[in-house]
Design brief:
mainly alpha, 76% helix
């Protein structure tokens, strides 16, 4: 029971930090000014690890590769730590194991990005009903606009159904291709042993 608690804590803390790193990355992609308190929190929470790495790993085509690399590294550490604490032994000397861990950590970044988008869409939809002029609205709109655009014609009366449709598509992505890839990569890890 103690091992399960430790695994839960490692996974939760790592996933939260990965979410903050991904938020930093995506806010930079949409060129949001970092004057909002949430953006300042994201910068303050991640500067200690991102800024030193930027000296070694510069941006590529304007994308903050240092932030994405750290997010991937945290995901890799989390998966490795959880597997080390698990009951099933893994052969960490086999190249297939490290290939599987690498692919799982990339998949973790994609999964966390989907969850981040889902959260932004939900918060944006709720805020549009409760407080559409909230200072957070432009940030959420910048993050979600490209993904909501294909569903923009989904209106019934005055109700915009694009957030609901996007959430359904994201949930299907989480349930089918991501789950399939996760199981495939885990089987590769088990075959390496």
């Amino acid at each position: 029971m103690l091992i399960n608690t430790i695994q839960f804590l490692i996974r939760t803390i790592a996933d939260l930090f990965v979410l903050v790193l991904l938020l930093r990355f995506y806010l930079q992609v949409v060129r949001m000014p970092f004057t909002h308190p949430l953006a300042q929190f994201v910068m303050g929470a991640t500067n200690f690890v991102v800024l030193p790495l930027r000296r070694l790993l510069p941006s590529v085509h304007g994308y903050d590769t240092a932030t994405m690399f750290i997010a991937w590294l945290v995901g890799l550490f989390s998966i490795t730590a959880v597997l080390l604490l698990g009951p099933m032994p893994f052969n960490f000397a086999a190249p297939q194991t490290w290939l599987g861990l690498t692919l799982l950590s990339v998949l973790t970044l994609f999964t966390q990005s989907v969850y981040l988008l889902m959260g932004a869409v939900l918060v944006q939809a709720i805020m549009s009903w409760v407080n559409p002029y909230n200072p957070l609205a432009p940030m959420l709109s910048a993050l979600t606009r490209p993904f909501l655009a294909p569903f923009s014609r989904a209106r019934i009366g005055g109700a915009d159904l694009s957030p609901l449709l996007l959430l359904l598509v994201l949930q299907v992505i989480l349930m089918l291709p991501i789950r399939f890839l996760e199981q495939t990569f885990l089987q590769q890890l088990q075959l390496a042993f």
